[in-house]
């Protein structure tokens, strides 16, 4: 997977008071993986195949059904003609809590130039790429009218990690990696699986926090603390028109920076 740099994190809310609470107190409502698997009628938020540990194509596996007859004779026969992939999920993951966000990322890039004309072409090329990566699709814009943009990603992650630790939670975080369910055949590691989703969800460009605790299973609310100076709120419909990523000229004229 191509290395990516996270520029912004976006959380979309369907109610403005939820967005305000997120900024004022860092309120993070975290459903369980099991709850996300059970959501019906909302394909953007629910996924019955959350956290797959194994995904095996039917033409690349063989299954055998074995049994004993009443008189103790062992019999078996092959199972053929599976309609789709064999999917295995760990029930232990159902109790984990997750907080999901949209990540604005850019791939690592390296460009070189020798003349001023070449430099301008490189800057134009990079700015075009940044515009594409910073544009949210209609699927994400439709999730809610209000959004909170995290502009200091490292500071936010640090606040969440400290809040989780203070609650006695173990936590992990990262970008979700998307796989093609029609061609992928294999297994994922125990932690890795909670950051794997089918490619039909790739438009979500998800970054998620995953928490585990000894507390009773169920949705939990974590408070990361005020996000002053770290985040700001705006209408979801305004994100694409008001947010722009581009290379900014260094004030001393000795280079370019991402701004």
User: What's the shape?
Assistant: globular
Number of domains: 1
The residue-averaged pLDDT reads: 87
Structural class label: alpha+beta
Secondary-structure element sequence?
A: EHEHEEEEEHHEHEEEEEEEHEE
Radius of gyration: 23 Å
Report how far the terminal alpha carbons are from each other.
Answer: 25 Å
In total, the number of strands is 17
User: Regions with pLDDT < 50 over 5+ consecutive residues?
Assistant: none
Largest sheet: 8 strands, antiparallel
- Report the portion of residues in β strands: 25-35%
Helix content class: 10-25%
Helix count, DSSP H or I runs of 4 or more residues: 6
Describe the structure.
The chain has six helices and 17 strands. The model has no long low-confidence stretch (mean pLDDT 87). It is α+β, with helices and mostly antiparallel strands and 259 residues long. Strands 1, 2, 7, 8, 9, 13, 14 and 15 form an eight-stranded antiparallel β-sheet that branches. A three-stranded antiparallel β-sheet has the order 6-3-11, with no helix packed on it. The chain is globular and about 85 Å long. The protein has one domain (4-63, 77-250). 20% of the residues are buried.
């Amino acid at each position: 997977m191509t290395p990516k740099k996270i520029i912004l994190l976006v959380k979309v809310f369907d109610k403005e008071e939820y967005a305000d609470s997120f900024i004022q107190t860092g309120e993070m409502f975290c459903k369980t993986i099991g709850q996300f698997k059970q959501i019906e009628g909302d394909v953007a938020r629910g996924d019955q195949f959350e956290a797959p540990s194994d995904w095996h194509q039917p033409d690349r596996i063989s299954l055998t059904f074995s049994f004993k007859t009443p008189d103790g004779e062992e019999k078996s026969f092959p199972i053929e003609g599976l309609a789709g992939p064999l999917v295995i999920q760990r029930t232990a993951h159902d109790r984990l809590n997750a907080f999901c966000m949209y990540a604005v990322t850019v791939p690592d890039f390296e460009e070189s130039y020798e003349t001023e004309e070449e430099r301008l072409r490189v800057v134009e090329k990079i700015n075009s790429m940044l515009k594409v990566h910073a544009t949210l699709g209609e699927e994400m814009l439709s999730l809610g009218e209000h959004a909170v943009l995290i502009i200091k990603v490292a500071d936010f992650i640090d606040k969440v990690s400290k809040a989780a630790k203070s609650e006695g939670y173990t936590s992990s975080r990262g970008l979700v990696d998307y796989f093609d369910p029609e061609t992928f055949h294999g297994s994922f590691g125990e932690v890795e699986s909670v950051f794997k989703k089918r490619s039909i969800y790739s438009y979500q460009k998800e970054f998620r926090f995953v928490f585990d605790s000894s507390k009773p299973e169920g949705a939990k609310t974590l408070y990361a603390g005020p996000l002053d100076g770290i985040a700001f709120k705006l209408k979801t419909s305004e994100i694409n028109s008001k947010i722009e990523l581009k290379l900014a000229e260094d004030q001393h004229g000795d280079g370019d920076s991402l701004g």
